[in-house]
Amino acid sequence: MRAQYDKEHFRQHSLPTPFHPRLAELSQGSSWHCWKGHLSPAYFENVELEYFAIRNACSVMDLSPMCKYRIRGQDAEAFFDRMVTRDMSKLKPGRVGYSVWCNDQGKVIDDGTIFRFAEHDYRLCAYERQYEWLKISAAGFEVDITEQTEEIAALTVQGPTSFAVLNKMDLPGLETLKPFGIMHFPYHGGELMVSRTGFTADLGYELWVEASKALTLWDELFEAGRHHGIRAIGTDALDIARVEAGFIQAADDFTPANHTIRKDHDRSPFEIGLGWLVNLEKPNFTGRKALIREKEKGSRYRLVKLDIDGNKPAHASYIFHDRKKLAGAVTSAVWSPTCKQNIALASLEVAADHPLDDLWAEVYYQRELHWNRVWLRCRVQDKPFWNPPRRRATPPGLF
Amino acid sequence: MNSYDAIVIGAGHNGLTNAAYLAKSGLKVLIVERNPYIGGASVSRELHEGWIYTNCSYVSSLLRPEIYRDLNLAKHGLQVVPFGGGVTLTQSGDYLGSYSNDEARRREYARHSLHDADALDRFSTDVMRYCRFIRPFLLRTPADPTSFRPRDLSELFFLGKKLYELGEEELYEFIRFFTMSIAEFLDEYFECELVKAALSGSGLIGTALGPYSPGTAYVLLHHYMGDIDGNVGEWGLARGGMGSIAKALAGALQEHGGEIRTGAPVAQIRVRNARTKGVVLEGGEEIDAPIVVSNLDAKRTFLTIMDPKDLPDEVLERARNFKITGSSGKLNIALDGRPEFPQLPAGCPLLKGDLHITENFEQLERGYDDWKNGTWSKWPYVDMMIPTLTDPTMAPPGKHMMSIFVQHCPATLADGGWTPDKREAFGQTVIDAIATFSPNFKDLILHTEIRTPHEIEAEVGLTAGNIFQGDLSFDQLMFNRPFPGYAQYRGPVKGMYMCGSTTHPGGGVSAAPGTNAAREILADLGRKNITPEDFGDD
């Protein structure tokens, strides 16, 4: 398969997404960054205000740069079951499943969501490009794999009023859609797919249309949201929400195995808190033997959610036992504006049974170019920092 | 007074480096050079008025930054400028660009194969793992695996540690890698012929082998293990041509009181009572020194400037058997304007990089077949550059210089030796091939320097015109380079040393062999080591 790029493509570092004209109109800060080859704003106006759109009203973020692959064929279920760590026979048509997939050494290649449209028809959304890995994994399976990143435009619509907004868009039956469900609606001669998914641990949906309908969708969505606090957000605001949700991000909280150069810098699913996605009962999947071995021998690392004293975000901080022995390092840290907590995800290099009751973060922060250092007490949290019931309520609230 | 602490033979970049370190340590050092100019294969000459050619080596990546900094090469006028990217042109009118912008590079690969665009990440990760393994060894003397001296044991332990750090899976792969062909290695990642051909060039440059020959995978690594400012694998141009590197090293040597004599060909290394005494020049002049360092290749050193009676039979036999195969030529062309390559879009930055015209393994292997048949490749692998698009110092404004490295050109031809007519015919083959992509190319040519292996041997002094001073095959690397038992820069006669690319870590303008040899010489003299350790990139 070849991509259909014009030879003149080199004149731009990153390519515009189908929503670019609208993003460009709103972008005040010129905060464009490159998200897998596409122009993506880190923020439009103000990260804090955009964050509160997620938790207070309705946020809209362009999700189009997500790497998207269509997998069709009679072996599609068996193919996914062989590739990913979780039991794919349990994912029914019309449902979405989150999973990770590993190499033969049981190290995580990437994580992503798998959309099952029909018996033999799936879409995979991944952070990293996966076409080659899908081709490698497809050996012996009757499946057809197509790259769809450019042809499908996507928006993530998150926040307590997100249903109220979509409810104005003539999407009959949407109120019955449960978390991780998918519905399809006719849309201007094409199709709009809505999934009740997101990266925020809040009420929210993701909208998927063919690229040519992107601007229509944007305009209709913002018209529908006019009285419901709809607001376009950049990736920075989402990053705060996802840490509150306790969600990990590839390349931030772990390095995908195919990009890991140094020994032991990769991670198994157990080591990034995704052991719950690993079904060792499955007779065969990529990495199974290595993961069984790891289960017996113990893991090298563990990923923890930390509630940290004070209000200085522990960006890239070392974590110590008893302020003395190095335990690991923070991978993501934010001040949670909703929980009013100083929170972080950290990767610790300690045995599973090692007590974690005396952890400290060594936090450096700057005030007018003067550096200060504080020791902040950390408490390991098992649950997400933010997980409101409205996230799951079906029918969802109108707020 | 015609007496020195040390004499270095050959003012190529390794000789100059070695001499500079010896001088910096306080020794009275003389470097003698056969040619009326310095530089060896790291040389810039004005052969057409107003145009500076980078006559032999033409790009820089391997030059160790530790040495660059240590010898103050910037102060002595050296600047290495990355050029970024490159392109392979196809006869169908398409091309594969390797843009320095990574997203454009990815799209360009995806334009040919989506699979290969992804695979490039996996390939780069694996090659980078091997580079990380090998880079710390560039500025280390190879351990002798048969020795129990504490230093050899500690170096062997270091080797073991680095192998362990590769990880289990990678260790298997790495061992395979050393004996694989570049075609087999690339086949494990890529599906598109053009992608594979474009990436395989680094496995063939300077090597008398084809893409399917075992051992060519390592040659690729040899071209990836350098860096520019920490960007491993990146290549650049020395401003003013590669002669600027020699000039800067000469500046460092002179700063520390070293002397340079050009036009001074050495007839023999003098040995008395199994000890080195100095050299005798071809005119008969004798110069004394208890230390003589040869920057010539092992064949030339032991078979032409040493008396066989002074050498162990084993060394003579090893030198006779040393593999130093001629396989490449070079064209340097003064152009009256900028050559057009209409299949590239206007303003495309790829023209500033290295340009190639071989688009599949078949062509590359046929090029090697021609070499085996005793003739030059009829559709050659060329690595061509227009340095003047980056470096303003090499031609008048608006004019250009083109440097064309040509692979698969034998040292001797099936129908006898090289003659001026055959040299012209070789040059014409290359020019005709390039002209199929550039309609105005031939009309712009003002002057051409054509160098077959014959000229490279005769003018630079590299046996058979081998650019690496000895094949980079696994049997001639690390503690076996140039020969088993002689990899620690010491020759078989007390006081005699080797410092050229014929020693570890081999060819390329790295200055590492010259530095490593200086470290050993200083150790033998009981002097403090002043050669740099590697930066220890992790």
Account of the 3D structure:
The complex is a heterodimer of chains A (399) and B (538). Among the domains of chain A are: 7-66 and 150-245, Gyrase A, domain 2, CATH 3.30.1360; 301-385, Elongation Factor Tu (Ef-tu), domain 3 (Beta Barrel). Chain A is globular. The mean pLDDT of chain A is 96. Helices cover 17% and strands 32% of the residues of chain A. Chain A has helices spanning 20-26, 47-56, 76-83, 131-137, 162-166, 214-224, 235-245, 288-297, and strands spanning 32-35, 38-41, 58-62, 67-72, 95-102, 108-118, 121-126, 144-147, 152-158, 182-187, 190-195, 204-210, 230-232, 302-308, 318-321, 325-336, 341-348, 359-367, 370-381. The longest helix of chain A is centred in the middle third of the chain and has 11 residues, at 214-224. Chain A has 399 residues and is an alpha+beta fold. Chain A has eight helices and 19 strands. The mean pLDDT of chain B is 96. Chain B has helices at 13-24, 65-70, 102-112, 114-134, 150-166, 168-177, 182-187, 193-204, 216-224, 243-255, 298-304, 313-321, 361-372, 420-435, 441-444, 453-460, 512-524; strands at residues 6-9, 29-32, 44-48, 51-54, 80-82, 86-89, 95-98, 227-228, 231-232, 236-238, 259-261, 266-272, 275-281, 286-288, 291-294, 328-335, 354-356, 382-385, 400-407, 445-451, 496-498. Chain B has a domain at 6-42 and 63-78 and 239-321 and 468-524: FAD/NAD(P)-binding domain. In chain B, the strands form seven sheets. Chain B has a five-stranded parallel beta sheet with strand order 11-2-1-15-21, covered by helices on one side. In chain B, strands 18-19-16-20 form a four-stranded antiparallel beta sheet. Chain B has 538 residues and is an alpha/beta fold. Chain B is globular and about 65 Å long. In chain B, helix 1 (13-24) packs parallel to helix 10 (243-255), helix 3 crosses helix 4 and helix 8 (193-204) packs across helix 9. At the A-B interface, helix 4 of A face helix 3 and helix 4 of B.
